[in-house]
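Please describe what follows:
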Amino acid sequence: MALTNMDIRIAEELDIPALAQLYQSTVLAIAPERYSPEQTQLWAAFASDRDAFKQFILAATTFIATDETGILGFAGIAEEGHVTSTYVRSDLIRQGIGSTLMEKILEYAQMHKIERLYAEASEFSLGLFQKFGFYIYDTEIVDRQGVKFKRYLVERSGH
């Protein structure tokens, strides 16, 4: 599938239901490869918390990749350089959408003179971050309702 017709735009409130659907279906499709059933279900359930998910998308500048089939993926960056999200529709992973979105994040950071970018990467997004010059400076275990997750703390300095 050629993704030549891909457009990138900034998420709006009207996009929230579609982004929540993409988030949830992607997590449910790919997480079981590396995460337990409990981790997968809890991670996917975040999209059902309407207020928290809306904040997750709109508190950052969230870029959405779209084409004629709909939303392909999204990635967000907060003003202080926190890369808040990178999600690609599960049937389109490894087709350049995540890279296109990451390029948009880096362009945004450069335009806004953000010196340091950082994120909490999952097993799935870690490779994308590393491809764009982020390095692991630590790992953390977070506890979400009694379910533990390992996250990679990654950062990228300068341009």
Q: What stands out?
A: Residues 60 and 78 are 4 Å apart (CA to CA). The longest strand covers residues 147-157.
